[in-house]
Design brief:
There is one protein chain. This protein is α+β, with helices and mostly antiparallel strands and about 450 residues long. It folds into 2 domains: about 55-140, Purple acid phosphatase-like, N-terminal (Immunoglobulin-like); about 145-440, Metallo-dependent phosphatases (Purple Acid Phosphatase, chain A, domain 2). The protein has helices at about 1-20, 160-170, 190-205, 230-235, 275-285, 315-325, 430-440; strands at about 55-60, 65-70, 80-85, 90-95, 95-100, 100-105, 105, 110-115, 125-130, 135-140, 145-150, 175-180, 210, 250-255, 255-260, 290-295, 330-335, 340-345, 350, 355-360, 380-385, 390-395, 400-410, 415-420. The strands form 5 sheets. Strands 14, 15, 16, 17, 18, 19, 20 and 21 form an 8-stranded mixed β-sheet that branches. Strands 13-12-11-22-23-24 form a 6-stranded mixed β-sheet. Strands 1-2-8-5 form a 4-stranded antiparallel β-sheet. Strand 14 (about 250-255) and strand 15 form a beta hairpin. Helix 5 runs parallel beside helix 6. The chain is globular. The N and C termini lie far apart (about 70 Å). It catalyses: a phosphate monoester + H2O = an alcohol + phosphate. Keywords: Glycoprotein, Hydrolase, Signal, Zinc. GO terms for molecular function: acid phosphatase activity. Its EC number is 3.1.3.2.
């Protein structure tokens, strides 16, 4: 019955989307590369028993714990994870919690969340959820450099999504970062289930750390006025561990990096909880322990694409100075379905002490690419291209990291943009400027 309902929802949704979403007809921006068109949705069906785990994904919790999340159709499956360092040999176990939610006529399966650990760094663990079903494995991130992050925005669940994930999985990495727009369910809840099954082969093996995008909001007047019901239920992040009051924004530390996951769709003005949390979080950072400081959010603060022009401006005006004074190294955003890298910027001006801003909303969304850029490229924009792809940030040590953007090709990825980054922590001139600014503020 669940499968039939899921398929019927999907067919209805497909008919709606085919008639309602605009198609892009802009000319290709470059003769060197033929821009790919959108590809169809991929609907991934449920093929396991009702008590077996599905949609398994993991996320970091503190320095040595992992949250395992999954869904079962059976309401009586125990929220329990058994795990160990060799296949089929589970030396430890942990129990957690489960929840479910309704959205109009849809009722989710049981959503399980279990925190396991303490775990050793750079170690492969084998685990089983709920006492039965398939065995999974993951590798914990390292405790020191080097560490490699994959960054993918606006992922969706199309054939381009499958291509992006295949390219991501072809080369090893440690942590997956997603700056919003996961499933593109847009109130069609079976698409959340389909998305969870699509990403499971990747999200069950490496921690996925996500923040929300506009397609996660899913509000409906009076009935669901607050939004994010499915997102908060399914993709629980370690917000409480960072002192946040909301799953929509939080921070975490891994190896020598402090990562800020900001919420473009939570209040962010100076009187908001998010702003006050960010102030406190930045003040707590010890750059001798985490010399790299990276931020993710959904709606970009800098953007020379015609799509979503200015939508991140109010958040930029509210929060940019906080990130600048904290000497954030890089800010990754999604929302615009193209790739663009800016130089180090503060207040719309090139600044050697500002963050590098990168828009990477090109994971595989169903709406196609944002092909139209401003005709005159701003001086602060270094590289821009409307193609599907993913990014990799490899932090080698406390001073240097390498960023690369990989365009999707049919059988392989192509590194179309890359740059070496020096951490702001290791910049004497920027550190001296920070000290002078602090002294002025204290006067």
């Amino acid at each position: 019955m669940e499968k039939l309902m899921s398929i019927s929802h999907f067919l209805l949704f497909s008919l709606i989307t085919l008639s309602s979403f605009p198609q892009h007809h802009h000319a290709a921006a470059s003769s060197e590369y033929s821009r790919p068109p959108p590809r169809p949705l991929v609907f991934t069906s449920h093929s396991r028993s009702e008590s077996d785990s599905q949609q398994v994904h993991i996320s970091l919790v503190g320095k040595d714990h992992m949250r395992v999340s999954w869904i079962t159709s059976n309401k009586h499956t125990e929220s329990k994870v058994e795990y160990g360092k060799s296949p089929g040999n589970y030396e430890a176990s942990a129990t957690g919690e489960h929840t479910s939610y309704h959205y109009f006529f849809y009722r989710s399966g049981e959503i399980h969340h279990v925190v396991i650990g303490p775990l050793e760094p750079s170690t492969t663990y084998y685990y089983r959820c709920g006492g039965s079903g398939p065995e999974f494995s993951f590798r914990t991130p390292p405790s020191t450099f080097p560490i490699e992050f994959v960054v993918v925005g606006d992922l969706g669940q199309t054939e381009w999504t499958a291509s992006t994930l295949s390219h991501v999985g072809a080369k090893d990495y440690d942590v997956f970062l997603l700056p919003g727009d996961l499933s593109y369910a847009d109130t069609q809840q079976p698409l959340w289930d389909s998305f969870g099954r699509l990403v499971e082969p990747y999200a069950s093996r490496r921690p996925w750390m996500v923040t929300e995008g506009n397609h996660e909001i899913e509000t409906f007047p009076i009935i669901y006025p607050h939004g994010f019901k499915a997102y908060n239920s399914r993709w629980l992040m370690p917000y409480e561990q960072s002192g946040s009051k909301s799953n929509l924004y939080y921070s975490f530390e891994v190896a020598g990096a402090h990562i800020l996951m900001l919420g473009s769709y939570a209040d962010f003005d100076a009187d908001s909880d998010q702003y006050k949390w960010l102030e406190a979080d930045l003040a707590s950072i010890d750059r001798t322990k985490t010399p790299w400081l990276i931020a993710l959010l959904h709606a970009p603060w800098y953007n020379s694409n015609d799509a979503h022009k200015g939508e991140g401006e109010s958040m930029r005006k509210a929060m940019e100075e906080l990130l600048y004074k904290a000497r954030v190294d890089a800010v990754f955003a999604g929302h615009v379905h193209a790739y663009e890298r800016f130089t180090r910027v503060f207040d719309n001006t090139a600044d050697p002490c500002g963050p590098v801003y990168v828009t990477i909303g090109d994971g595989g969304n169903r709406e196609g690419l944002a092909l139209s850029f401003e005709k005159t490229k701003p001086s602060i924009s270094v590289y821009r291209e409307p193609s599907f792809g993913h990014g990799r940030l490899r932090v080698f040590n406390e001073t240097h990291a390498h960023w690369s953007w990989h365009r999707n090709n049919e059988s392989d990825t192509f590194v179309a943009d890359e740059v070496w980054l020096q951490s702001m922590y290791s910049s004497d001139s920027c550190n001296k400027a920070t000290q002078r600014s602090i002294q002025r503020d204290e006067l």
